[in-house]
Specification:
145 residues; globular
Length: 145
């Protein structure tokens, strides 16, 4: 492993722990992942938290995991914009999202919150911390951060 790769891994690990700390402060999984990654692009934390407040706990319905939602929202914010009407750019971005989904599914076992999170709130906090770490790492890798 090169020095650059090591520093990227260390930086991502630090961001992942900061995201878990946000979750421990009471932010939802989507907010926790998005806030840390969005900050890398200079996006204001208060706006990041507000933007993602509806996406925790699988959009409050147990659907797509908030940690993954926060990760792909960060991709949308920080990646090069897709030109409206440019189908090649749109498909290339969609491929990135699908690749992230496969990595997240491999790391966490599923994409659907209800299939992933335990009922016990203490166990859930620990388990969701792992999903948050995975979301930050996967998005940061995809973005080359």
């Amino acid at each position: 492993m090169t020095e650059t790769e090591r520093s990227a891994e260390e930086r991502r690990a630090l961001w992942a722990e900061k995201a878990v700390a946000k979750h421990n402060e009471g932010f939802n999984c989507a907010q926790s992942v998005f806030m840390i990654l969005a900050a890398q692009g200079g996006y204001p934390q208060a706006e990041a938290a507000k933007l993602m407040q509806s996406f925790g706990a699988g959009m409050a319905m147990g659907e797509t995991c908030g940690a993954f939602t926060g990760a792909i929202a960060a991709l949308g914010l920080l990646a090069a914009p897709v030109t409206p009407g440019n189908l090649e750019e749109k498909e290339a971005h969609a491929r990135r999202v699908r690749a992230m989904a496969e990595k997240f599914r491999a790391a966490c076992g599923a994409l659907r919150c209800a299939d992933m999170r335990p009922e016990d709130s203490e166990v859930r906090r620990a388990v969701c911390g792992g999903y948050i770490r995975a979301g930050v790492r996967i998005a940061a890798e995809e973005l080359g951060l």
